[in-house]
């Protein structure tokens, strides 16, 4: 069984740039999972820091309402790994999930950490690179020209243990006919 993880698609992140393409890709992937009656699990980062764009308890910390409507489960977390001190692993096991698909914010943190943690727990992992996004850029890391999403996708892909696809490759490889047309 497959499951989709939609990580930290929270209002505060979405307000920090134009992430409409990433959101549309995630919406389409969600539709595919729902059509196949496969679980869609949302992660919500619980950030207690006052200066955070997703400070817990604010409207900015809420999950995007357009996407959340299709969530089968919502799990709160407080670290980059969706598995650390959450019931995600128990939930996946109870559902019989063996293959997870990772999307979400911020590419270089929560989606990356979660993909690695999932692999370490024995799951087959597919990271959909262009269905992740980040509010950071090359200046944050003092690395001129850095394409964060591409860099993370390359590192995960080179591991030879985590499958990395872009949305179009996902559609070709996994999607039902409804997405292909």
TrEMBL record:
Keywords: Hydrolase. CDD domains: cysteine_hydrolases (cd00431). Belongs to the isochorismatase family. Transmembrane segments: none annotated. This is Isochorismatase family cysteine hydrolase. It comes from Paracerasibacillus soli. InterPro entries: Isochorismatase-like_dom, Isochorismatase-like_hydrls, Isochorismatase-like_sf. GO terms for molecular function: hydrolase activity.
């Amino acid at each position: 069984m497959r499951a989709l993880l939609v990580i930290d698609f929270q209002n505060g992140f979405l307000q920090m740039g134009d992430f409409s393409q990433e959101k549309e890709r995630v919406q389409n992937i969600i539709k595919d999972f729902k059509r196949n009656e496969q679980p869609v699990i949302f992660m919500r980062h619980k950030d207690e820091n006052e200066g955070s764009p997703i400070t817990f308890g604010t409207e900015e910390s809420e999950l995007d309402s357009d996407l959340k409507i299709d969530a089968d489960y919502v799990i709160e977390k407080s670290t980059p790994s969706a598995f650390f001190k959450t019931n995600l692993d128990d939930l996946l096991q109870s559902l019989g999930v063996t293959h997870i698909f990772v999307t979400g914010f911020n590419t270089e943190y929560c989606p990356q950490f979660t993909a690695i943690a999932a692999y370490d727990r024995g799951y087959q992992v597919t990271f959909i690179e262009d269905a992740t996004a980040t509010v950071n850029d090359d200046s944050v890391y003092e690395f001129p020209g850095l394409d964060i999403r591409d860099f993370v996708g390359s590192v995960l892909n080179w591991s030879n243990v985590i499958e990395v696809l872009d949305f179009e490759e996902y559609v070709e490889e996994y999607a039902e006919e409804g997405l292909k047309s």
